[in-house]
Amino acid sequence: MRTTTCLSNKYKHFISKSTQSKALNAMMKKETLPGVVCLITLLHVCFFSAAAVSGQNQTCRPSSCGDALNIIDPFRLKTDPSGCGDRRYELACENNRTVLNLYSGKYYVEEINYKNYTIRVVDQGLKKGDCLSPPLYDLNFEKFSYDDPYAWPYYWKFRTTILMSCSKQVNENNKFIPIIPCNSSNGGNSSSSSQSYHYALTGDGDSLQVGDLPGSCTIGKTIYSEMGGDSEPEIRSMSDLQDQILLGIKLSFLQIRCFRECKAKGENCNMDYNANSVQCEDPNACKDWYDCGRPEWLRSVVIILLLIFASIYTAIIAGGLIVRGLIGAVLCYIIYKLRQRHISKHDSNKDISLVNHYSQP
Q1: Quick count: other Cβ atoms within 10 Å of Cβ 228?
Q2: How many whole angstroms separate alpha carbon 93 and alpha carbon 97?
Q3: How far from 80 is each of 54, 58, 97, 119, 149, CA to CA, in Å?
Q4: How far apart are CA 95 and CA 303, in angstroms?
Q5: Which pTM does this prediction carry?
Q6: Rounded to a whole number, what is the largest CA-CA distance in the chain?
Q7: pLDDT in tens, 218-228
């Protein structure tokens, strides 16, 4: 009987220890489960974030169009994903040439300088060859406005080339360069009575004057191009001229910084194209000492004092004019009286002399 009781107690003790172990494991699992869930969630978030960043970098990678140009933000090609670049700086790829559509004209992009915020473009009509091709489009300063994506700063140096047709030959040293226009069927050397001679006059945009043209010449197209710098060789032939005008024009896209740094916050923007910098300006900020932090009552006092001062000053000026007028009138009256007196005395003396003359026997 004692043996049975001891076995029963041992069995109960074993069951109790087994139950406690299971309960402990259950509690551990219950406490560990939220931590595991949080860890898995964190790993998922990190994975998808890294995938999103990787996908974005892969989607907006630099573009090119067969001409070794590195096309990155803010520029984009028409075929790039919609989230890449800025649509105001969208370029096209035509026949393996990067093309800028600007003011209804098409221009080949020759260079993009992201450090200086400049882009150099050339008219599609300009080509190197045995004849001089005129530009297809007329790009000049007047087409650009302040809010346009591109700017042509007026103080940047540029070269102006004027194409002309003359009825007589022009011989003035090397000032006028003989050219063969591509649209001339006879190369400008016809033997008919309508023979014409074609020349180009080129120089700095500021120094070139229309008065330099001979009277027998009519002006054709005008071509603007970038100045080659101080080391630029002298232009002596049509080939030299073609090399120069094919440099194209350099435009600034510094406006993108204005769009993103200033105008996006509702602020005005001042651009320095030489320093390639922008300065934002709060349109509601004070412009001078009168607007800067002055209370309203003080402004009213200042206005009243200015009005009083203006009234006194006007009165002084007007009083001075009146006094001068009165003094002038008095002087005129005195002079008039003295003159009348002098005339009266003269007449009296004349009458006395006449009486004495007639009274003598």
Answers
A1: 14
A2: 6
A3: 17, 12, 16, 20, 19
A4: 68
A5: 0.62
A6: 209
A7: 888 889 998 86
